[in-house]
Amino acid sequence: MRKRVYVAGHQGMVGSAIIRQLREQDEVDIVTRSRAELDLTDQRSVNDFFASNAIDEVYHAAAKVGGIFANNTYPAEFIYQNLMVECNVVDAAYRTGVKKLVLLGSSCIYPKLAPQPMPESALLTSYLEPTNEPYAIAKIAGIKLCESYNRQYGVDYRSVMPTNLYGQNDNFHPTNSHVIPAMMLRFHNAKLTDDEQVVVWGTGSPMREFMHVDDMANATIFVMGLDQDSYDSVTDPRLTHINVGTGIDCTIRELAETMRAVVGFEGELVFDADKPDGAPRKLLDVSKLRELGWSASVSLEAGLQQTYDWFVNNQTHLRVGAA
């Protein structure tokens, strides 16, 4: 029997990667709507969409996302839009009989000074990183929304918390994007113009974990496909989210040096210590996912090379949204 699978946020980096992999499966009918066709912040429109489409499963990859600059500049938009989208999609899914849903969160849900690597149990144990607190609060609410609907209504709604993602269809806005696309654009432009140096935000000392979006899509589909007993074996009824990452991190300086080599920029690296570093380290504890039988397969260098090749070949199709 064919399944009707709705991918919210299908035009984004993660959503488009999920669709690429779902298309390889038999017996799956993929349902999508663009932002112009369906405003996920509009409750009535979302309710009408679910009521008329007989959805079996939902991959909730829709979100307003951005880097440090965007989070600092648009905090109200980040918390409002993400809360509205989560509430509307999860509630409409329940009210129309959707039994399985996976919501994508973010590693920023964990406290700024969480133990490293960060286990799922670190959630709500201390203060969040101030630069992205509104976004993090919205994502924490999404986790608790799924947990609450599971407890009260007996549905099977799961949450996956990815580390920093990058890859095909990322947002390459020069200031509002995440670190890898912003850095890739900067190095690429510097190479084209024969600049002598590239300036990187911060001191270069913070440590970050990065995962290619194809790995994230594969992990999300894996989590959706687990039977409930297997998933429940590594989670708790009141703490049902699961981390998704590589288990390996590097400094921002090391990332910049790898990026310089991949792009082929031969100039100098300069670090602007007046710009914010964010959290000192963010590495996820991915032991639960590994216990279930999944681990990442794309190395950072290979993933950056694949992304840069795609970037070079798709200059007219790059996403450069404001946030």
UniProtKB/TrEMBL annotation:
CDD domains: GDP_FS_SDR_e (cd05239). InterPro entries: Epimerase_deHydtase, GDP_fucose/colitose_synth, NAD(P)-bd_dom_sf. It holds the Pfam family Epimerase. Keywords: Isomerase, Multifunctional enzyme, NADP, Oxidoreductase. Its EC number is 1.1.1.271. Coiled coil: none annotated. Transmembrane segments: none annotated. It is an enzyme of class 1 (oxidoreductase). NADP(+) binds at residues 9-15, 104-107, 139, 162-165, 178. Substrate binds at R186, W201, R208, D277. The keyword GTP-binding does not apply. The keyword NADP applies. It comes from the Bacteria. The active site is at Y135. GO terms for biological process: 'de novo' GDP-L-fucose biosynthetic process. Catalyzes the two-step NADP-dependent conversion of GDP-4-dehydro-6-deoxy-D-mannose to GDP-fucose, involving an epimerase and a reductase reaction. PANTHER family: GDP-L-FUCOSE SYNTHASE. Belongs to the NAD(P)-dependent epimerase/dehydratase family. Fucose synthase subfamily. This is GDP-L-fucose synthase.
